[in-house]
Amino acid sequence: MLRGRNWIIITLVALVCTAGWDTSSVSGYSGFAIGQADSSRAQSPAERAQPPVTAEANALKLEQQAETLYGFVTEGNINKARVTMDAISRLFVQSSFDGLTSVEGVNALSGAIIDMKAVVAEVSMQQERWEASAARLRLAANSLAHPRQPMWLQYYKLIREDLNDMEQSAAKSDMTGWRTAVARIQERYDTIRPAVIIARKPEEVNRFDAWLSYAAGLVSGSRPPEREELMNAVSHGREAARVMFGKEKDEPALSLPLAPREYGLAGWLGAGFILAALFYTAYRKYRGEKSRWQLF
Q1: pLDDT at 227 over 90
Q2: What fold does the segment set 55-149 form as a domain?
């Protein structure tokens, strides 16, 4: 009798263990199936097939934001300009521009963004400074998005006109006019320089940098420069600008004539003596020819 009870107890324990194992197995399988379903819902096939955002698309978004920022700045809308600037900063950090520009170009773009952030963080708004920084960032973003035809190329005509003014000042030895023309070129170049670095080779940028520094230093030394030295500087500036803007080599153009030198009294007396001698020689020849014909 006791042995029969033991078998009954053993059988009941076995049934309970078997039921527990089946329940845990079913619940485990159900959890796995639910996890798989959740994973499928987290990323649909359409989402998995979507291509990643390209560098070109990032550049276009950045350009659009920079255009919007420039509009708010010119309107004097400080609050919207600051909000847009924050959006530009986030977009720059989250984006990749691989293949669109060099390391120097990315650094130049970053510098333009940092400069604009510093401007919008100022307590008081200086409209001229805001517009200059916004224009610099706008041109840089445009240069990144449109490398074949960026807006900064439109500055070539303005810089050529400034170079013509430098040439006129050099011909007259007008140092005040020279300084004014160089300052205008410097201001224009500061606006487009980040955009230029994004689009051009470092050696082309360095060449124009070096020339501009040389032209500004010509009139700051203790010795006044010669006219020929100034004219040569203008010639080098034209070539550096031509290379930087990617223009074809121009046909040789006549430079402005140099101003006449002052010869003084001795020079005029010498010239008068030479003219008198020529007139006297011509008169003697005329008299000789006339006498010879009268013999016949």
Answers
A1: yes
A2: Four Helix Bundle (Hemerythrin (Met), subunit A) (1.20.120)
